[in-house]
Specification:
This protein is 39% helix and 14% strand. A 5-stranded parallel sheet has the order 3-2-1-4-5, with helices on both faces. The chain has 196 residues and is α/β, with parallel strands linked by helices.
Length: 196
């Protein structure tokens, strides 16, 4: 049976946090001198000296304004898919506001649709939401997943939840997590894991 790789979208397939910081936050907050490599927590609202709500509003504004749709995939990830993608099945699993999920799905299919055929999102809750809560986090999605899969995400808690559900998982190195190396070393570890 062909293995499935479950990919987080933001900051794994793309560089959302870096681009948002440079093109949205620092433009509207010129006093902010924080660099991407200094974002040692996610969400970074305390580092940005703002509220979590204001941070999320800014991120949502970036998504809605066309900033998200213009993101380019990480070149290393795109190269990995071109070289190895056809050997596995792929699924996107992301946490995104419900009203922005279609933007994320369109972006994934546009850039990775040759390989990623399943898009699943867990709503990133906002104050104005009033819809049924099915999966409260990615770990609950993994509890229902019945196939052999490997997960890659930039959030340590999501990786731990996947592992608790019995799935091997990798952490994409980002300044806010404890992963060592870079995107290329993470993709090498992924290749090693899925061929083991």
């Amino acid at each position: 049976m062909m293995k499935t790789i479950v990919w987080d979208v933001d900051d794994v397939l793309n560089d959302l946090m870096r681009v948002w910081l440079e093109q949205e936050w620092r433009v509207s907050h010129p006093e902010c001198q924080l660099t991407f490599d200094e974002l040692t927590s996610n969400p970074p609202h305390q580092l940005l000296k703002t509220t979590k709500e204001d941070y999320l509003l800014s991120l949502d504004r970036f998504r809605s304004s066309g900033g998200f749709s213009s993101l380019e995939p990480l070149p290393e990830v795109q190269e990995w898919f071109q070289a190895f993608g056809a050997r596995y099945r792929h699924m996107a699993l992301t946490a995104v506001p419900r009203d922005k999920a279609s933007l994320s799905a369109e972006w994934v299919i546009r850039h990775f649709g040759d390989w990623i055929r399943v898009f699943h999102f867990v709503p990133s809750i906002r104050k104005t939401d009033s819809f049924p809560a099915y999966d409260l986090n990615k770990g609950e999605v993994f509890q229902r997943l019945k196939e052999e899969a490997v997960f890659i995400d930039d959030n340590e808690e999501n990786v731990a939840d996947a592992e608790k559900a019995g799935f091997p998982a990798l952490l994409m190195p980002r300044p806010w997590n404890k992963a060592k190396g870079n995107v290329q070393t993470a993709l090498k570890a992924l290749s090693d894991l899925v061929t083991a």
